[in-house]
Every structure is written in structure tokens, then in C-alpha cells.
Amino acid sequence: MTKENRISLQYPVSVWSLTILLTPILSLLFLAFTEELKYFLQFQYLPVFWILGGLCSSPSLLIFILSNRFLERFPLNHLTKKFIFALIGVSCISITFMILGGSSAIKWILSYSSVFFILSLVVKRKLV
Questions:
Q1: Radius of gyration of the chain from Cα atoms?
Q2: Tens-of-pLDDT digits for all 128 residues of the chain?
Q3: Which string of DSSP letters, residue by residue, matches 63-107?
Q4: Is the sign of the CA dihedral 88, 89, 93, 96 positive or negative?
Q5: Model-level pTM?
């Protein structure tokens, strides 16, 4: 793998993996502090959230990688590329949770999308 390929993979994989790792933790902390302390007991299920999240969102990771490579071809400024990538990610997250369904789909769409959006703007994007 060339250095250019590693650099083009680094940003989407970083944003995707941080979203998968941080969102369940932040969601459980939010629930624990706003509703009841019983949600602290749910931290034992974090590995399940991470594994299922990784598996269910792996098609999105492929889309993130391909869209990142596609965006590199255009002479847009750095922030514009990040913003477009964030919108693509939010769309993928929304579609994934709509397919999975469930009564809490909207709650999960909002939590994962907000974390993804923030991370996509904050995580450093290396120039190719």
C-alpha cells in the first residue's frame, strides 16, 4: 500500500471508528445523568455495541472511503471537503438506522449523526 493510499484511508477510518467507539459511551453517560443511574449498569454491554456497530456500519465505511477518495479529485478547500464528508456520513447513518428500524431509530440516528458530524469536522484531515 502506498503512502498516498494510507493517507486517504486514515481520515474516513478515524472518523468512522471514533464514532463507533464514542457514541455508545456518550449515549449511556447522557442517559445515566439525565434519567436514572441504572444506565451505569449498561456499560457492560459496550463491547456488544461496538461489535454490532462495526458490523452494521461496515457498508458505510466503504462509502466513506470511496467518497473521501472522490472528494480528493476536486479543488475544494479543506473545510468544504470535511463538510461534504460529514453530510455523506449523516446520510449513511440515517439510511442504516432506517433499514434496521426499531422504535429507537430516531434517537440513535440523532446521537450517531451528531457525533459523526462533529468528529468529521474536528479530526485532522491529511493532505494527499
A1: 16
A2: 565 556 668 888 888 888 888 888 887 777 766 666 565 566 777 788 788 888 888 888 899 889 888 888 888 888 888 899 989 988 988 888 888 776 667 877 888 888 888 888 888 876 55
A3: HHHHHHHHHTTS---HHHHHHHHHHHHHHHHHHHHHHH--TTHHH
A4: positive
A5: 0.77
| Separation between Cα atoms, residue 1 and residue 19, nearest integer Å | 25
Q: Report the C-alpha gap between 47 and 128 in whole angstroms.
A: 34
Q: Which residue has the cell 479543506?
A: 78
Question: What is the spatial distance between Cα 57 and Cα 61, in angstroms, rounded to a whole number?
Answer: 6
Question: What's the rounded Cα separation, in Å, for the pair 62 and 122?
Answer: 21
CA 70 – CA 52 distance, rounded (Å): 28
The 8-class DSSP code of residue 57 comes to: T
**DSSP state, residue 125:** -
- Other beta carbons within 10 angstroms of residue 18's beta carbon come to 17
